[in-house]
Amino acid sequence: MYKYDAIDQTLVDQRVAQFRDQVSRRINGTLAEEEFRPLRLQNGLYHQRHAYMLRVAIPYGLLSAKQLRTLALIADKYDRGYGHFTTRQNIQFNWIELEQTPDILAELAKVEMHAIQTSGNCIRNITSDAFAGVAGDEYIDPRPVCELLRQWSTLHPEFAHLPRKFKFAINGAKVDRTVLLCHDVGIELKKNTKGELVADIYAGGGMGRTPILGSLIKQDVPWQVLPSYLTALLRVYNRFGRRDNLYKARIKILVKALGPEEFARQVEGEWAHIQNTDDNFTQAEWDRVAKHFTKPAYKTLSALTTEQLIASTPESEKAAFARWLERNVKSHQVAGYASVILSLKPHGTVAPGDATVAQMNAIADLSDQYSFGELRVTHEQNLVLADVEQSKLLELWQAAKQQHVALPNIGLLTDIIACPGGDFCSLANAKSLPIAKAIQERFDNLDYLFDLGDISLNISGCINSCGHHHVGNIGVLGVDKDGEEWYQITLGGEQGNDAAIGKVIGPSFYADEIPDVVTNIINTYVEHRADDESFIDAYRRIGVTPFKEASYKNAKKKVKAEDLNENAASQS
Amino acid sequence: MNQQIISFPKDSGPSLVANEWQVWNGEQDEGAPFISNELAHGLNKVLVPFHWWITHHKNADIIERANKGEIGVWFASDDDILKHADMIEAGKALWPVVAAHFPIFRDGRSFSTAALLRQRFHWQKEVRAIGDVLIDQLLQGARVGFDAFELRPDQDLQVGLKQFNLFSVTTQNSWRGKRSLLEA
Questions:
Q1: I want to staple A253 with a disulfide (CB 3.0 to 4.6 A). Which of A42, A248, A387, B149 is the partner?
Q2: Residue A182: how many other CB atoms lie within 10 Å
Q3: Which pLDDT tens digit goes with each residue over B100-122?
Q4: Which one of B108, B115, B171 has the shortest CB-CB distance to A11?
Q5: Alpha carbon distance, N-terminus to C-terminus of chain A
Q6: What domains appear along chain A, each with residue ranges and CATH number?
Q7: What does the pLDDT look like over A373-416, one tens digit per residue?
Q8: Are A158 and B111 a contacting pair at CB < 8 A?
Q9: Interface ipTM
Q10: Within an 8 Å CB–CB cutoff, is residue B136 touching chain A?
Q11: Residue in chain A lying closest to B107 (CA)
Q12: Which domains does chain B have, with CATH numbers?
């Protein structure tokens, strides 16, 4: 993985010093909270319900064993013994003291990590495919472009105070695992007919109050000119994005208002003036970065079939191991290797995406032992050991079980994406974690989950959509009505190549109704599915009506006028 | 107005200098000859709103003042300077200083205005940041194209002066210089 050079290291060290000074001015009162707020947000520091939360970047999801041990150390020394991995390849610590944040950032800088631009109205941490460089369906390894753009966007002066936050995702695989179309800018890498690396640019995607899928605004942008093209794009947004209304400030609103063609035309007009400047990347810069993303020292191995893998397993464990292989182990570019997903979604015992200090340390050891000392963080809030010898899978599975990260539920109903919700977040209207827990407890039957197959269920505690409920096959959104927590259900959302925004099925429910509602939705699917049709395919075939009827059949509350209003508003 | 500004020319270090330019908000315009009520203290140099310049630049009294080098313009954060390229090109010969305004420190539009003035219009003279200009914006401002800063009056200018050398490296080009590269 990428190693900082002297420039990168100097920059993060000096950023720590800058923030230390800002914190001290805040503490001595010369910097007002209102003016400190954007500064701390640009360093990932939120003020939450109980304490400060620090969000640390894991750029494009890559993490070394050493870095994970430092995250464990921070959780142990400065927090309450755990960290929360997020949907955008960050980790959050929920119980931070303001005074200690400079020291935490200094600890991070020692292992080439930072919290730069993990929040605030600026270019955020760049996300990519957790299986970059190893995925069987990859056209282009996106990591060199990710790293080049990470550097380009870091402390970019012109775009430090955009109208609103700005998120990049970069994909280079056939199957999109980055939720590309729900990003402010999605960069799809490919080779052109001459074999050159180029990018298709999608703009104006986003979730939140107005979920919109991004539009293709430019094709075949050579990788070298991404800095000037993105400068043009961001400049148009910085100048003309709305600043009068927080909820209409994202680029998606500008792209929608202008229309994608007109937006693209304006970007093109700006780009025409700057496309040949030396802002663009050079081959030397590519070489400097790309040399870090060469393949690790793979052995020459022969591929093993599932039968071969299972053959050496004790009889009593064969079925369980086979399940884990099916759900948690993914194919690899190199014969004899596989990628393993460690599930951070135990049924009902901890919040989705949480890992304890002991788990982080143990997983770091596993990565050293089985995967060249590297890990990845997925959009679904799980961890990946990307380069595991197939012949070691059984051993790894047994070790992972000891750490309670071997549940074979990847991609299943209980692999829930959830934000921290009202338990921690001061933006949330409702809690998400108890809902996730109740659903996981209700569906704590692996045979049944297996039979149901791929279903995504995503929970957000408010319309900011950090739990990505809009793209869950089943989405749960916390809403506030008269000070009470309610939950709205959406169906039909999907991430990936067939990305879709879920549709609200109707009035919202009380928290304690949600497990029954999900059960009714699932039963409807089981009743209607043809052969091994997936949930989303069945939904697309039969439509929302049967699911909707089932959802409300034992609803406790009668539909109130306000529910109808709320429903109408949310679909407008 | 602030008695002092931070001046940070592209090719030298930052320092405090006397503020010679008064920013006029365009209100209380009493017609020709142009003397704003606010132009007290013996100051005769004034930054007028760009939109006001558009409608008044042909007035004889304005031409006279401008020819003496006593008028510059300031751009509001929502002025689309690219729509008035001809006027800005003509202004190059007249205005000793232009400014871009921050209605609130977290409104970054004027960063792009400054960048365009330098990149597109090749503006060589001073570009001043005015309005809600705070210590922690100085470094960003200096990199996009500003070389003078009239800070909000409550800001500590001495702390401000220290902001410009916090970083010895950068990872993208800016008006002040190219990104850092390691020696080959």
A1: A248
A2: 27
A3: 999 999 999 999 999 999 999 99
A4: B171
A5: 45
A6: 6-110 (3.30.70), 134-291 (3.30.413.10), 306-402 (3.90.480.20), 417-570 (3.30.413.10)
A7: 999 999 999 999 999 999 999 999 999 999 999 999 999 999 99
A8: yes
A9: 0.96
A10: yes
A11: A161
A12: 4-165 (3.20.20)
